[in-house]
Each structure stands twice: as structure tokens, then as C-alpha cells.
Design goal:
With 373 residues, the chain is mainly alpha-helical. It is built from 14 helices and no strands. The longest helix is centred in the N-terminal third of the chain and has 38 residues. The termini are far apart.
């Protein structure tokens, strides 16, 4: 009997989580359009419902009734399976995220490894979408997405190892409990910055939206999808945005910790603050080139993450039995040691010389033509 009750509670909890994430995705589409419109001095959605609040519902109805098209040359099984496989990894991440005190689906002792493993499987679905469409633009977008995700996963994982060493656990719940009285963003600000940049790149969002470059690839890997299949990709994208924000809050911003308000409300406020930053970046920064993106990952973030890992390990060993104030001072010194060489190298670097403009070509003077005699 107890087993049946536990199974029923698990099913109800999973259904409630899926409904919550679907509503969150709809709200985030509205929120992003409003934020970007504000940045660009526009109004944004304002026609459907009060202040345009029903615009996500209208978009959902359009997704359901829009014609489902499968290209004649597409590999049918791979093409139709890709949008189905892209959504579950984004949803399953929330199984180990503590939304509040005691509000967690499963407290795994390898919670962070579980999150990284799930996020890596998204590359398979994206490549299936590009390959199955039998479209060269979709294939190029998929290959860009795979290369980008694989490249930025390395600094993303390296940036979190310092947090794991301080917490002494891979459990997401234990990591939140270890952030008392100091949030890990105070101890690892460089790690948080690296994690945030790498996460934006993994989400294929501006300024790293090269796989969906409209000016050259016309949306990339999902160019051939329409209707509900296209909606699945949008669902996965916005759920992944909220998932990255939830992971960042759990690892660096104290999770559900906060005074006065309920723990779950603190978690949501922090998560939406991180989501706002991601949307702010989208409306502010221009898109990078492919070479700039790869140079930032391999020549910038990876060495910086390795340096941060080394200094974090030294600070953890030297301040393990000290007071929170001494630990804060030790990690502050470690972060200064990491950032100082970067500042020196950047200041000494010579700007690239612009190519010289070609010399103006001399145009021969017009010779008068003899008129008719």
C-alpha cells in the first residue's frame, strides 16, 4: 500500500513539474519579448489580452494548428525523432534541483554529474535534426552547435570543480547546505563568470547564437521544422534557459537560502534574476564570429578555468579549518591571483592593425570626341 501511495505521489509530482515548466516556458517567451522590446525602445506584445499577456497562448494555438511539413528528401525517422529527443534532457535536469527546503525530486549523491550527463545528450538530438533534414544549412547549423557545445562544456565543468571541492559533495542539496553563511559566488566569482559565459554558449543564445545565424543559415538545425515540431525545439530552449538559471542558483547563489520569505520563493526570485541577465545579454551584445567563439573557449576560458581550479584547491586546503571571514579573505586573494595575469596580458596586447585601404585608382581624363563635320 505504501509503495502504491509513493508511486502515485511520484506521478503527481512529475506531472505538476511538467505543467510548471510548460507554463514557465510560455511566460519566458513573453518576458523576453518585453525585455528586448524595452531595450530597443519598442512596446513588445500588446494586442492579445491585457498588456499582451495572452500572446503566449496565441502562439501555442498557432503551433498546434500550423501544418506539419516533412521535406521529401528528409530521412523521415531521424527527422521526426529529433524534436522528441530534444525535450526530455531539459526536463529531467529538474529531478535533482532543490526548489526549496525539502522540495527536491531525488537527492542523488552524484547530482552534478547527473546534470552534466543529461545536458550532453542534447547534442545528439541537434545533430539528428540537422542530418535528418538533408538540408546543407541545417547540417552546418547542427555541426556548429555540436562543436560549440562540446567546446564550452570543458570550461563549464572546470569552473564548478572549485565549488564541489569547497562543498565536499556532488549532491545538489549538500551544495546548498554548504553555502552557510557564505554563498559560493563570494568565494568563486571567477568561476561563476566562467560558468555563466559557457552556459550562454551551450544554450546557443546571443552573442553565441552562431548555429542559428539567420543571416547565413536561416535558423540552423531546425530550419525545416514547422508546427508542433518547431514548438518542441522552442520548449527545449526555454526550459534549458530556466534549467541553467536553476543550476547557477544552486551552485553559486545559495539555492533556496534567504531570510523572511519562503524558501521556494527565494529560489524562484534568484532564478528569474539570472534569466533576466541572459535576456539582457541577448538584447545588448552582437553576435561573435566562429573564430572568435572558439578562441574565447580554448584560449580564454579554459586557461582561466584551470588557473581558477588551481587557486581554489590551494585556498580550500589552507582555509579548511578557519572562520568564514578568513576563508573569504583566502578565496579573495586566490581570485586576485587568477585575474591579475589576465589583466596584465590584456593590457600589454597590441591591437590588431587594420588593413591599409587600397590606393585610389587614377581615372584617365576624358578626351573630347570630334563632332560631326
Amino acid at each position: 500500500m505504501n509503495t502504491l501511495i509513493n508511486l502515485l505521489l511520484m506521478v503527481l509530482g512529475s506531472a505538476a513539474l511538467v505543467v510548471f515548466l510548460a507554463v514557465t516556458m510560455m511566460f519566458l517567451t513573453y518576458l523576453e519579448r518585453k525585455i528586448v522590446a524595452r531595450i530597443q525602445d519598442r512596446v513588445g506584445p500588446n494586442r492579445v489580452g491585457h498588456l499582451g499577456l495572452m500572446q503566449p497562448m496565441a502562439d501555442m494555438v498557432k503551433m498546434f494548428i500550423k501544418e506539419d511539413i516533412t521535406p521529401r528528401a528528409a530521412h523521415r525517422w531521424i527527422f521526426n525523432l529529433a524534436p522528441i529527443l530534444v525535450v526530455p534532457p531539459a526536463l529531467l535536469v529538474f529531478a535533482v534541483i532543490p526548489f526549496g527546503r525539502g522540495i527536491v525530486g531525488a537527492d542523488l549523491n552524484i547530482g552534478f554529474l547527473y546534470v552534466i550527463a543529461l545536458s550532453s545528450t542534447t547534442t545528439i538530438a541537434l545533430f539528428m535534426a540537422g542530418w535528418g533534414a538533408r538540408n546543407k544549412y541545417a547540417l552546418l547549423g547542427a555541426m556548429r552547435a555540436v562543436a560549440q557545445i562540446v567546446s564550452y562544456e570543458i570550461p563549464q565543468v572546470l569552473s564548478v570543480i572549485g565549488v564541489l571541492m569547497v562543498a565536499g559533495s556532488l549532491s545538489m542539496v549538500r551544495i546548498v547546505e554548504a553555502q552557510q553563511p557564505l554563498w559560493f559566488i563570494l568565494l568563486q566569482p571567477v568561476g561563476f563568470l566562467i560558468f555563466l559565459i559557457a552556459s550562454v554558449a551551450e544554450l546557443n543564445r546571443t552573442p553565441f547564437d552562431i548555429p542559428e545565424a539567420e543571416s547565413e543559415l536561416v535558423a540552423g538545425h531546425h530550419i525545416e521544422y514547422s508546427g508542433l515540431k518547431f514548438g518542441m525545439f522552442m520548449l527545449a530552449e526555454y526550459v534549458s534557459v530556466f534549467a541553467i538559471a536553476a543550476v547557477a542558483v544552486t551552485l553559486f547563489l545559495g539555492g533556496w537560502r534567504g531570510p523572511f520569505l519562503p524558501s521556494w520563493l527565494w529560489f524562484l526570485l534568484k532564478a528569474y534574476a539570472v534569466v533576466f541577465i541572459l535576456m539582457w545579454l541577448r538584447g545588448t551584445l552582437p553576435r561573435l564570429r566562429v573564430d572568435q567563439l572558439m578562441n574565447l573557449a580554448w584560449k580564454g576560458l579554459v586557461p582561466l578555468a584551470l588557473g581558477n581550479l588551481l587557486t581554489a584547491a590551494l585556498a580550500t586546503v589552507l582555509t579548511v579549518q578557519t572562520s568564514p571571514f578568513v576563508r573569504l579573505m583566502g578565496f579573495t586573494l586566490a581570485n586576485v591571483l587568477v585575474v591579475t595575469p589576465l589583466v596584465i596580458v590584456t593590457s600589454l596586447r597590441q591591437p590588431e592593425a587594420e588593413p591599409a585601404a587600397p590606393a585610389p585608382r587614377e581615372v584617365p581624363a576624358m578626351q573630347p570626341q570630334p563632332g560631326p563635320q
